[in-house]
Design a protein that fits this description.
Rossmann fold
C-alpha cells in the first residue's frame, strides 16, 4: 500500500469564524455585529491556518447549512463560533448535530 506523505503546510487549511445573533435586535445592530465579528476574525490572522469570516447567523436553517458546507469542504478543519448578542441555543441544535468538524466556542465578555 502506498504511503501518503505527511502534510507539512497549513496554508491550504481554513477555520471558519461564525457569529450568532438574532433578528430581534434590528438591522442596525446586526450591521454592528457583522462589523465587530469581521474585526475579531481579522484579529485571529496570526493563526497558522487561514481564518475565514462568515456572515452572521440568525436562523436555524442557515446554521445547519453552514455546518453541512463545512463538512463538505476538505479545507475546513473546524469552526470558531462566537455569540455576539444573545443567540438562542435552540437555534443551534440542528446545525451542531450535523457538524462533523471540531468546534471552538469563543466566549468573550465586555
Amino acid at each position: 500500500m502506498p504511503r501518503t506523505p505527511l502534510r507539512t503546510s497549513l496554508d491550504d487549511l481554513e477555520v471558519w469564524f461564525v457569529t450568532g445573533s438574532q433578528t430581534l435586535y434590528g438591522e442596525e445592530t446586526l450591521r454592528q455585529v457583522a462589523d465587530q465579528s469581521a474585526a475579531v476574525a481579522a484579529g485571529l490572522s496570526g493563526l497558522p491556518v487561514r481564518v475565514v469570516w462568515k456572515p452572521v447567523l440568525i436562523e436555524p436553517d442557515g446554521i445547519r447549512r453552514l455546518a453541512l458546507d463545512a463538512n463538505a469542504d476538505d479545507r475546513v478543519i473546524g469552526i470558531i463560533a462566537w455569540m455576539h448578542t444573545f443567540s438562542p441555543a435552540k437555534m443551534w441544535i440542528a446545525g451542531l448535530d450535523a457538524l462533523r468538524k471540531p468546534l471552538l466556542h469563543l466566549h468573550t465578555q465586555a
